[in-house]
Amino acid sequence: MKRKSLELNAFLNGLRSVLNLFFPLITFPYVSRVLSVSGIGIYNFSNTYITYFILIAGLGIATYAVREGAKYRENKSKIDEFASQIFSLNMIATVMAYLLLFASLIIFKNLHNYVSCILIFSLQILFTTLGTEWIYTIYEDYTYITIRSIVFKMISIVLLFLLVRRPEDYLIYAAITVFSTVGSNLLNFIHARNFVHIKLTTKTNWKYHLKPILIIFASAIAVTIYVSSDTTILGLLKNDYAVGIYSTSVKIYQIAQGLLSALLTVTIPRLAFLWGRRRISEYNQVLSKVIASLGILVLPAAVGLIMLSREVILIIASEKYLPSVNSLRIISWAIIFSIFSWIFSDCVLIPAKRENFVLRNTVITAIENIILNFILIPFLSYDGTSLSTVIAEFTVMIMNGYSCRDIIKPVIFKKDTLKNLLDSIIGCVGIVVVCLLCDIGFESLWLKTIFSVVLSVIMYGAILILLKNKNAYSMLDRAKMILKSKL
User: Fold this and answer.
1) Which one of 66, 232, 255, 443 is least enclosed by Cβ atoms within 10 Å?
2) What is the per-residue pLDDT across 257-273, written as a single tens digit (0 to 9) for each?
3) What count of other Cβ atoms lies within 10 Å of the Cβ of residue 217?
4) CA distance 334 to 332
């Protein structure tokens, strides 16, 4: 099967990430006006509650499947056997998740008001398993799932405006949300036959699979605690207003982070394949390309977001969320650290079967983040929460990097890599200058934002070309080729 280019895969995966991030931003303003406050509360609680059981059903299997399956993708019989074993494990975990869910609904009486909505959302548990997106990741095929995602998101938006018309329609809203996932995952399962033949099997190598799966699962739990603790502790120590302000900063931060991580996600199966086949030279080349590409993009993205935080808040949210500007400026630094931390963990440690280091580093960082939140929030409120996130992301980046230092040393400590970093820093100085000048020169919010972004891109690109940055020249050549092919 012909592999698509990393650039195309990155674009397709980035597009899908953008859709997933912007879907709530498009629908929520309408839903918040139509539904009652209590209806929104039931919907959000039920949706959040089900995510824990989706995590249990997932069991860290998807990450493990991509790492191991990438080695077998060119061997039809082995990949069929492997996929059947992994799918069977996934189904067992799914049954366990449902048993725990039903038990919790019976035991905890205060959940009775949410039962109907929770049961609707519970369909996502089964269909996430049936979706088998790890198969598409193994084969680096993002075209189908991206097109499928666009179609179902569009249908869901139409259904939302047609069917959700009254305050009591929150169950219909929940059903539409589930439809956008369930329908696409069912099609995923059917279409996956083009790659592998999956069947339930009892012939599973439990000893080989379970230990790494459970370690990755424990890391996923630690990450969930790490991500959720900020908002939880802020709500406990402060109030709903502080949570609302911080949530706005985090939502914008996650959009930027999601776009930049698109390239990272699509390289994981290829890196796992190359490492599994011990093709170290090719592995280093791909890893070097990923680090170089992200090195050029991450720094200017973070600096640009810091410089335009006020404008972004006003455009995406409104004036009443302006207190989140400083919080966004702080948390934007975490973009740099989190992206490189992901490179070290998902592109190096996990393919190298060092998931135990990922677990250790994530647990230590989660504990650090919780402690920092309790220390900083009483004094700095939501700004303290953002600062704790930056410190935690920096810590886990250093720890992950140290854990794979023997692998990344030939890639990181090269003259070209260091020059690439220096070029990017100089280019970011140009972005700061452009944004300051646009702030002085324009009063209109939209004109200031548009000119700041466009001129910053031009300035940054020009500086890199003047500094004879190889990656900038490579990107420019690819852009010329695309333009020629279009003409």
Assistant:
1) 443
2) 877 776 666 677 777 77
3) 22
4) 5
CA 196 to chain centre: 26
The Cα–Cα gap between 308 and 432 comes to 10
Q: Which two tokens stand for residue 161?
A: 């405006």
Nearest to 92 by CA among 118, 57, 61, 124: 57
Alpha carbon of residue 396 to chain centroid: 17
CA distances from 186 to 130, 182, 311 (A): 7, 6, 41
Instruction: Name 315's Cβ contacts closer than 8 Å, sequence gap at least 6.
Output: 445, 446, 449
- Encode 89-100 in three state secondary structure: HHHHHHHHHHHH
Q: Which of 204-213, 291-300, 368-377 has the highest mean pLDDT?
A: 368-377
Cβ pair 89, 213 in contact under 8 A: yes
DSSP state, residue 349:
I
Instruction: State residue 5's pLDDT score.
Output: 54
Say yes or no to pLDDT of 227 above 80: no
The proportion of the chain whose per-residue pLDDT surpasses 70, expressed as a percent, equals 87
Residue with tokens 């919790």: 104
Which one-letter amino acid corresponds to residue 476?
L
- Assess contact for 180 and 24: CB atoms under 8 A: no
d(CA 479, CA 473): 10
Q: In this structure, are residues 274 and 356 in contact, taking their beta carbons and an 8 Å threshold? A: no
Please tell me the distance from the alpha carbon of residue 342 to that of residue 296, in angstroms, as a whole number: 16
Residue 19: the pLDDT is 65
For residues 34 and 118, the model is more confident at: 118
Length of the chain: 487
Average pLDDT, the chain: 82
Q: Which positions ≥6 away from 328 have C-beta within 8 Å?
A: 248, 249, 252, 253, 305, 309, 312, 313, 386
Tokens of 481: 């080729």
pLDDT tens for 154-167 read 888 899 889 988 88
Which of 423-426's residues contact partners 24+ apart within 8 Å by CB, and which partners? 423/463, 423/464, 423/467, 423/469, 423/472, 424/295, 424/296, 424/299, 424/300, 424/464, 425/299, 426/463, 426/467
User: Of all residues in the chain, what percent are helix, strand and coil, respectively (each to 5)?
Assistant: 85, 0, 15
The rounded distance, in Å, linking the Cα atoms of 59 and 50 is 14
pLDDT tens, position by position, 302-316: 999 999 999 988 887
Tokens of 142: 């993002």
Neighbours of 346 (CB within 10 A): 22
Entry pTM? 0.72
